[in-house]
Amino acid sequence: MSNDNKKMVKEITSMDADFAQWYTDIVKKADLAAYSNVKGFMIVRPYGYAIWELMQSNIDQMFKALGHENICMPMLIPESLLNKEKEHVEGFAPGVAWVTYGASEKLEERYCIRPTSETLFCDHFKDIVHSWRDLPLLYNQWVSVVRWEKTTRPFLRTREFLWQEGHTLHATQEEAEQETMQMLNVYAEFCKNCLAIPVVQGRKTDKEKFAGAEATYTIEAMMHDGKALQSGTSHYFGDGFSRAFDVTFTDKDNRLAYPHQTSWGSSTRLIGAVIMTHGDDNGLVLPPPVAPIQVMIVPVAQHKPGVLEKAEEVFRTLQSCCRVRMDKSENSPGWKFAEYEMKGVPIRLELGPRDIEKGVCILSRRDTGEKISVELNRLTEAIPALLKEIHENLYRRAKERRDAMTYTARDLNEMKEIAATKPGFIRAMWCGDEACEAQLKEQADVTSRCIPFDDQEQVAETCVCCGKPAKKLVYWGKAY
Amino acid sequence: MSNDNKKMVKEITSMDADFAQWYTDIVKKADLAAYSNVKGFMIVRPYGYAIWELMQSNIDQMFKALGHENICMPMLIPESLLNKEKEHVEGFAPGVAWVTYGASEKLEERYCIRPTSETLFCDHFKDIVHSWRDLPLLYNQWVSVVRWEKTTRPFLRTREFLWQEGHTLHATQEEAEQETMQMLNVYAEFCKNCLAIPVVQGRKTDKEKFAGAEATYTIEAMMHDGKALQSGTSHYFGDGFSRAFDVTFTDKDNRLAYPHQTSWGSSTRLIGAVIMTHGDDNGLVLPPPVAPIQVMIVPVAQHKPGVLEKAEEVFRTLQSCCRVRMDKSENSPGWKFAEYEMKGVPIRLELGPRDIEKGVCILSRRDTGEKISVELNRLTEAIPALLKEIHENLYRRAKERRDAMTYTARDLNEMKEIAATKPGFIRAMWCGDEACEAQLKEQADVTSRCIPFDDQEQVAETCVCCGKPAKKLVYWGKAY
């Protein structure tokens, strides 16, 4: 690459020098999002939105395959409705945006912009549920919500964010609990199969659970800097909301009963998870299932006879097997290489006169930088296979890093030592007392991420904080 | 159908008895939308939302094929931003919802919930447009907007509605004008090919144009009751917004210039258009491209040996060629027939023991009620062909009705007479004076729908209102 080219190339802060700045640089220079002049609100730009559309279509298919239907609720909630469930209002009311005027007139009752929609769904359920025959109701909506955050960062925490919120209603506790777990599994599978992100599934402690839920389950991912990112949650409500909103049904024995409820959500935060799980100092690295461009064709020496024609032919051929684009602009190959690395395109396909003579092209992998020469007539098999391999490699690499950055602490000193020096998850026993969670936050600056399902090794006999007997293994960490 | 069955069947008001009630009945009984307890806001229910998803995916593909990209802007607009373009703020500010508090604190500047997003897009364009190389920008977003309407009706006019809003920026006036017309054509094609709705394309008079636009173009559809429904609009802004928001670019001659802008929108109102264009006294009639269920299989005498097995086999076969469902519930065939007629399913497939013996089934068309016996081994050809035929018939029928309900008035008396007695469009000359539009509203209760492109017959020498010389033919009517 010539010096001239280098100057044209977008440069970003290195991950090790300043992780937060590296993140912001990628968000801006890969054209994912822009800051708006509405404080705390972001603009999701075309490339970022295209990633979101792929995430949406993948997970929406999973929801629908399990019988869920999409609906759309109002974006405003009257204050009296928000107030109906005590814990819920205490959790959310302090952080909402209030609409007080409509068309120049002061409203008799103020409305908040939904921070989440349990209250609206319950109000609707009350009208449409009468008999056990009406259950289960398996609903979801794709909307944006507003929470008036003080500190914001694109995709990770913004005053408005795009998400899906599932809300379901069931005749029995057992069925609702199964749904809660099923949807947590959907999130975990989606993270693995579409985002190449390994997650720890587990239950939140009471301190960290959703306002109004009986139990909150979470998938926790580990970012490149060792911090945790809560990437999706699934809540079991019991019949608390049903009672608060007077949702009843006649069961099979003709008795009036309260249905059991769940909700579950995931958001554009997952774009942040992708950036911070797979990205590197050259920019974004996208898992193929959510890459708007999976293969970028860069013709080399494109003015030489036959190059563009061959490149166009390859382009047309590949349209049947991947999301392919070609850049035949006047920008130099060096600029193009850097640009599509920044944008995380999984495969760059280089094609020059000498390649054409030999009937081959060069495939350059974004994940490893490796270059492979492949025969042109083998591309429609080679590319899908390589996309799969890249995905698996991204997942394996992220999992290995996560495992290597997961530590075990047996007492408070060990916990403080690890928390201060080794970014990552810390496995440690907990007695179940919220006071210990508060202590650990104060002394080691960690929060409980979850009580994992798949890892309940008894690493010590006693609580890492208070020394009392403890049975639960908790993953602790610093979190976004 | 037995009396017992009849009682189970949902009944609706007849169209002739009370058109408004007929509409509301369909909205509720076909499970399209529900009233919420948030005044003026609707809940889009699963069946209605599934129709919307099909509309979205069809038109979104058309947008993308023309190079448009989806993005997502904030839902809130600071008052100072809304105020920047004079005509725009005068048109919209009086009807918005104002957020005045965020997280218990009074905001220094109040925000409105977007009624439309020109101001936000311009504010973003200012940041990202520098050179002619950055143009055109072809953006669209799928969001909901809020306008504080006094009188609301599901899908037709609600305080919040789902829509898409396209916003584009161009180097030249000519290119922006082409885009404006292109997108109007996209709407017209979509209405014809996906909704089977014929529309009149034309230009709005200045009185009826969008606040801040230089020109507004519209597609106007005629509902069953002869009223007009504005079903999509496309606006040419010139460089007015660019000047107001200081959006500039360096053109090819290295001079600073203001780009030219367009916007265009369509909404869930189109669901209302489908209901009122094709519906009948048995309920909704859906055009096949937007029917969530295109074929409903109803097994007859389903307890007889072999019936369900054969129905399942047909069901599996048809999955390759249409959106098919089967109802093998315990409800009577009569109930099922009425239910799927109410829901507008284009084809009902009946299959009973005698049909199976003969190797046939009965296809019942929702649009005509006609029943056809078709050989089972011909279904995968017969059904797509029949869906196409149904679509064409719906379009033809709607167009014939519209043409039959389009009248011509040569003077004010004729106009008043037609407006009072014959629901529909009225073709009449107009001098171009807004005062005449006001007069016609007062005296004949009609508004100008558009100055149509394809019908500029000089039906009289003089303005239908004032008698002065007139060159423009205008379509007038009562509108939703």
Walkthrough of the structure:
The structure is a homodimer of 480-residue chains. Chain A is an alpha+beta fold. Chain A has 3 domains: 19-278, 2-Layer Sandwich (BirA Bifunctional Protein, domain 2); 293-402, Anticodon-binding domain (Rossmann fold); 407-477, C-terminal domain of ProRS (Translation Initiation Factor IF3, 2-Layer Sandwich). The first copy, chain A, is 36% helix and 26% strand. The first copy, chain A, has helices at residues 3-8, 19-29, 46-65, 79-82, 86-92, 118-128, 173-195, 240-245, 269-278, 307-318, 333-342, 353-358, 379-404, 412-421, 434-444, and strands at residues 33-35, 42-44, 69-70, 76-78, 97-102, 105-113, 137-146, 160-170, 200-203, 215-222, 228-238, 249-250, 256-257, 260-267, 295-299, 324-326, 347-351, 360-365, 371-375, 406-408, 425-430, 447-452, 472-477. The longest helix of chain A is centred in the C-terminal third of the chain and has 26 residues, at 379-404. The relative contact order of chain A is 0.12. The model of chain A is unreliable at 1-7 (pLDDT under 50). At the A-B interface, strand 2, helix 3, strand 3, strand 4 and strand 5 of A face strand 2, helix 3, strand 3, strand 4 and strand 5 of B. Strand 5 of chain A pairs antiparallel with strand 5 of chain B, so a sheet runs across the interface.
